[in-house]
Each structure stands twice: as structure tokens, then as C-alpha cells.
Specification:
alpha/beta, seven-stranded parallel sheet, 16 helices
């Protein structure tokens, strides 16, 4: 079988980490399958995919398409007018991009086109070859984007199956698409060998340009892109509310990833907010971290603070796999993967005082942190395995595949390859 993946960025984000697990698992479980990837920009994700033996084509988005997005825009007539103007500017460049994409897809002749990212879902629906099938892998709530959701509903009939990364996202997709496609929830996976309690760590203080706080200070970190809904301001306010007697230092790890207008905070904004709150050296900014496992192992507590429903919460699963105590914003898909008080602590979205109480409780009790962390690792070993994820997807691919692909699969089995 030949699988073609479409992804809107070559940089690493949560959806890209999830896709890498799929690619790695397919390499292990289906070594005879041909894996292809088209991305709209270059970056570390491209290098990691190529290291797995995936054939990668970089086809950059035109600037107007790359910047086009709905997330973070305010409601109202003026905002809708600005978005309409942005769509108009992107129309001709997108049409030219689509022609080139169709040519490449036709030449690659995939059996299944697997799209990652809302822009690629639509481009995949328009570029899908007649004898191929389309799978949308949805990692976000499309209902949060009115224009995109209308387009997804219109073209959902071209999609063989829609895979969602949680039950919460699956339900949202069903409402948006109105029953025009089959929707199946499939949880993401984590590399449990790489994300483990044992392994190298980062010197987060040195990385942040601050002095070492020593072993008596509890390190609490939020690892996320700078998307506005990831709760950086909630985290900063929670740090401000902690009593001076609680010896902690907060770390903001990560940076902006996407090019979309209005959807991301800047490092300047976050530094200004921290200064306004008087946090001083109690908070540190590391910038983008290439290997999140090293950063997570360097923390004592990992904070997830999203103010909007989290589609899945990959960093939660990664922190649990590393055996760290996690404090989770309990909404959306994130609420599905934890048991509060057992393998994680929870707080209400946007509730800085509640988050501060959870951090204070964990910071004061090292034994409690170890108990929660050990339970989190056990949950990860049950629920977030690569074998489980790829096994579910292979069944979907084989159910979707065209007669040509089914014949190829039979031939592969006959020659001893696993199908």
C-alpha cells in the first residue's frame, strides 16, 4: 500500500509529533508499505520524517495562504470583513498551489491520502486522485472556525473516514459534518522508550539565561506552542498567587510555530506580562526546545493550562510517560485521558487560583509527586502505545483502500510481508 500524508508545516507541533508516531509505527509494523509526505514548509519535522525513510516533498504555501486563519480573531462585522479580505487575497495563490499539488499527488499515485491539519483537509479533498481515498485526521475542534467548518461540511462526502484524536473532537466533527462521513476516535500515541523517567535532562536555568536555583526549588513548567488558548497567562497568574514561602520557579518552554495571523502570543508579550505581575526571576523563558522529553524530565511538575477545550493534550501524555506529576486543565479530550487525583491533578480551564492550589499542594509533597508520576507512567503504558495506534489505523487504511491497493496488499502477504 502507498500512503501519502499532507501536513501544513515542517516545524514540530503537537499534530506533527502525533504524525511522527504514526510514521514510525508504520515503518515497524508495515515495512513494505511506501510512505510519502508533502509539507508546506521546511523544518525539524521534515528531517525527522526523512530519518524514518519517508519520502518527503516540501511544497511551500504561498504567503497569503500560510497566514490565513480564523483562530484568535474577534467576533463582529469588522473581523469578518478582515477575514473575507484575507480569503480574497489568498484565492488566486491557493488555486495555483492546488494545481501544483494535484500534479504531484497524481504522479505519486497513493492508495490513501491522509491529511493532517484543517487547510490540508480541504486541499486534500480538492486534490485527491479519482482512484484514491481520503482520510482526514482531525486534531482540533472545527466548530471553533466558522468558515472552515462550513467548508469541511461541504466536502466531507469526499472523505472515506475522519479520524479524530479524542471522543470530544469526534463528537464536534460529527456535528460539523452532519453525518456526511464516518468519524472514528483514535487516541494519539507516545514513544514510551524516548518519553520515560530515565534519560538525559536539560539545564533549564542555563537555557533561560538565569542563575541555577538549586535542588531545593521545585521546577514547574508549561510546555506548549504560543497559541493564545494554551493558557500562558493563566500559568503566570497562578505563579503570582503562590505564597512566597513556596519555593518554586516557573518555566515557559516553547515558542510560536505557525504563521497564522492573530493566533499566537509573542515572547515579548509574555515577558511583558511576567514583568507586569512582578514575577522577576520566579519565571524563566527557555525558548523552543528541540527535544521535549529532555525538558520534561528536568521538571518536577508539568502544567497544562489550556483555556479552551484541549483536543487531546499530547504534552499531558508525554509528561505522564516521563513519570511526572501533571496538573491538567480538565476539559475536552484532556479530561478523557486522566483520572484526577490518581494519575494527575486537575483544575478548571482559566482558573488561576485553582491551578495555584494544585501547584502548591504538589510542591509541598515530594512523595505525592512520585505517587502521581508513577500512576501516570502506568496509564501511559496502557493507553498511549504506538502499537495500539498503528494497529487501529492499519485496519482503517485497509478498509478504505481501493481495489488496486487491496490486490497489492494480498500480493505482499503472499510474499511474506506483513499486511
Amino acid at each position: 500500500m502507498t500512503l501519502l500524508f499532507l501536513n501544513p508545516t515542517g516545524q514540530m507541533g503537537g499534530a506533527e509529533a502525533a504524525l511522527l508516531e504514526i510514521l514510525a509505527g508504520l515503518r515497524e509494523q508495515q515495512p513494505a508499505w511506501r510512505l510519502l509526505l508533502i509539507v508546506a514548509s521546511n523544518g525539524s519535522f521534515v528531517a525527522r520524517a526523512r530519518a524514518l525513510g519517508v519520502e518527503v516533498t516540501v511544497l511551500p504555501f504561498p504567503a497569503a495562504l500560510a497566514r490565513l486563519g480564523e483562530w484568535g480573531r474577534r467576533e463582529g462585522f469588522w473581523s469578518r470583513l478582515v477575514l473575507a479580505a484575507a480569503c480574497a487575497r489568498a484565492a488566486l495563490p491557493t488555486r495555483a498551489y492546488l494545481r501544483r499539488l494535484r500534479q504531484i499527488v497524481r504522479a505519486l499515485a497513493p492508495d490513501v491520502v491522509h491529511t493532517n491539519g484543517l487547510k490540508m483537509h480541504l486541499l486534500g479533498a480538492w486534490a485527491r486522485p479519482k482512484d484514491g481515498v481520503l482520510l482526514w485526521h482531525v486534531h482540533d475542534y472545527p466548530s471553533h472556525r466558522p468558515v472552515t467548518s462550513r467548508l469541511l461540511r461541504r466536502y466531507a462526502h469526499r472523505c472515506g473516514t475522519i479520524v479524530a484524536n479524542s471522543k470530544s473532537v469526534a463528537e464536534d466533527v460529527r456535528q460539523v459534518c452532519g453525518g456526511r462521513a464516518t468519524v472514528r476516535p483514535v487516541l494519539n500515541a507516545v514513544d514510551l522508550t524516548h518519553f520515560s523517567p530515565i534519560g538525559p535532562r536539560l539545564d533549564l536555568d542555563q537555557l533561560s539565561g538565569l542563575s541555577d536555583v538549586g535542588s531545593n526549588v521545585v521546577r514547574v513548567g508549561l510546555l506548549a506552542t504560543f497559541a493564545r488558548w494554551k493558557g500562558h497567562r493563566t500559568f503566570l497568574n497562578a505563579l503570582r498567587l503562590l505564597p512566597a514561602s513556596v519555593a518554586v520557579r516557573g518555566y515557559i518552554l516553547g515558542g510560536p510555530v505557525y504563521e497564522t495571523d492573530a493566533s499566537q502570543l509573542s515572547l515579548h508579550e509574555l515577558r511583558a506580562e511576567a514583568e507586569h505581575l512582578g514575577l522577576g526571576p520566579r519565571v524563566a523563558f527557555t525558548g523552543f526546545v528541540e527535544d521535549p522529553a529532555l525538558a520534561i524530565r528536568s521538571l518536577d511538575i508539568v502544567v497544562h493550562a489550556s483555556t479552551e477545550p484541549e483536543p487531546f493534550g499530547l504534552v499531558i501524555a508525554e509528561a505522564m510517560a516521563c513519570g511526572k506529576a501533571v496538573v491538567v486543565s480538565q476539559t475536552g479530550g484532556a479530561a478523557e485521558i486522566i483520572t484526577p487525583g490518581v494519575d494527575a491533578f486537575a483544575h478548571a480551564p482559566g482558573d488561576a487560583p485553582g491551578l495555584a492550589r494544585r501547584i502548591e499542594e504538589l510542591a509541598a509533597d515530594a512523595a505525592l509527586r512520585r505517587r502521581i508520576g508513577d500512576a501516570g507512567r502506568a496509564t501511559a503504558e496502557r493507553s498511549f502505545t504506538r502499537r495500539r495506534l498503528v494497529g487501529e489505523l492499519v485496519q482503517i487504511y485497509q478498509g478504505l483502500s481501493s481495489p488496486k491497493a487491496q490486490v497489492s496488499s494480498v500480493k505482499s502477504r503472499g510474499s511474506g510481508a506483513r499486511a
